[in-house]
Design goal:
This protein is mainly alpha-helical. The protein has a single domain, classed as MFS general substrate transporter like domains (Growth Hormone, Chain: A, Up-down Bundle), CATH 1.20.1250.20. The protein contains 16 helices and no strands. It has helices at 2-28, 32-64, 66-86, 91-105, 108-119, 125-154, 156-178, 191-202, 215-219, 222-252, 260-263, 266-285, 288-307, 312-340, 346-374, 379-402. The two termini are 25 Å apart.
Length: 405
């Protein structure tokens, strides 16, 4: 649960720009084209730096220890978030703070992957990962409810300062008290629970993978390439849509800014329901990959229909259904990464996976989806998004054929 809280606050820091963008655009008098251009740069600067930090800094984070790494990056991302508000009038400096924020958050996911691998047996990891991944969806769900009223009343900079305070006042103390690198180093863990951890490790757990290939050999396997392709496509679609949905509602659907506090949040309630359902079904059935392939196929078709609609009610309903279906991938993603990578190289390997998928998918997503949003209502504009979701489903189907999980 503590990891989920850190992800909740950390994801607020990512989403604050997308929620502040209508106010920033109005303050600067940007046209829709200028909003798409500069908004895309602000979003992409984060993801490119975030991806590089995943790849380059995750091995250092593993050596430093996941607990100490989390404590350090919480302090850094709080500082850089607040700094963005202070220099927001200077666009180049504002973009630079988003890149620094990406560098600070870069090893967050690899450290949480490492902690999950050390603390949970393989047959429980879909649910274990879903608990902290739910922080992501709670962030998307509640960020408009928390930040839009604050920024509407006190200016967009106030939301940035609020998030910096939340990181230091909530996330930091929770990690300090409750997060430990592994069961053996947890001072408040009972003897019975400590013995249980030792039993599952010794009786199969990850010890069964002790003779797995090294990191380089694992990264060259076709199954890793397929997983990486799936991660890239998912980030292009999901992060692009999440980043642009508030602006889509405000500029294309004519929704008042203050109404975004519930409209932009509503579809992601369905994501939490989808994540919970697919995580339980995945652990019980062992068919996570097939469920993700079918879920993404249906979700991609539904979100295409949503962007072609002229009705705000229809858009919200279809977007919610798509978010529910696409969550099938989120319930499967990191358990699969933890399965296909050697335990001793999980931090570095998951950093490479998360870094490349975020840097490429997150970097391209705001531009690709921004172009789709700008031309929404036209089938020609929406076709690239449809093609990406269909390709994603095909990649997952091939992954399911190669790995039974």
């Amino acid at each position: 649960m503590v990891l989920g809280v850190t992800l909740l606050v950390g994801y607020y820091d990512r989403l604050n720009v997308s929620l502040a963008l209508p106010l920033i655009a109005a303050e600067r008098g940007w046209t829709e084209a200028e909003t798409a251009h500069w908004g895309g740069l602000l979003m992409s600067a984060f993801y490119v730096a975030y991806g590089l930090a995943n790849i380059l800094l995750s091995p250092l984070g593993a050596r430093f220890g996941p607990r100490r790494s989390l404590l350090l990056i919480i302090v850094l991302w709080s500082v850089f978030t607040s700094l963005g508000a202070l220099v927001g009038q200077f666009l180049v400096l504002f973009i630079a703070t988003r890149a620094l924020l990406g560098l600070a958050e870069g090893i967050h996911f690899p450290m949480m992957n490492l902690l999950t691998q050390r603390w949970f047996p393989p047959h429980e990891r879909s649910r274990a990962n879903a608990i902290w991944i739910s922080g992501l969806f709670l962030a998307v769900l509640t960020a408009p409810l928390v930040l839009v009223p604050v920024m509407h009343a006190f200016g967009w900079q106030s939301g940035f300062h609020l998030l910096a305070a939340l990181g230091l006042a909530i996330s930091l103390p929770l990690v300090w008290r409750h997060v430990h690198d592994e069961p053996a180093t947890a001072p408040r863990l009972g003897e019975a629970e400590r013995a249980w951890h030792e039993r599952w490790r010794g009786a199969g757990g990850d010890a069964a993978d002790a003779r797995a290939p090294g990191l380089t050999a694992s990264l060259r396997r076709p199954v890793f390439a397929l997983m990486l392709a799936a991660g890239i496509l998912n980030n292009m679609v999901a992060l692009g849509l999440a980043g642009w949905f508030p602006t889509f509602l405000a500029q294309r659907m004519g929704v008042d800014y203050q109404d975004l506090s519930w409209m932009a949040a509503l579809p992601y309630l369905a994501s939490l329901a989808g994540l919970a359902l697919f995580a339980v079904l995945g652990d019980r059935s062992g068919r996570r990959t097939k469920a993700a392939a079918l879920g993404y196929l249906a979700g991609g078709l539904v979100v295409t229909a949503a962007l072609l609609s002229d009705s705000t009610g229809v858009v919200l309903a279809l977007y919610a259904l798509a978010a529910f279906l696409i969550a099938s991938f989120n319930a499967f993603e990191f358990p699969m990464v933890q399965r296909i990578l050697p335990p001793g190289h999980l931090a570095a390997g998951s950093g490479i996976y998360n870094g490349l998928s975020m840097m490429v998918g997150g970097g391209l997503g705001p531009f690709v989806v921004g172009a789709v949003i700008a031309g929404s209502g036209s089938i020609d504009a929406v076709l690239p998004l449809t093609a990406a979701t269909l390709t994603m489903s095909a990649v997952l189907a091939e992954l399911a054929r190669r790995v039974s999980y």
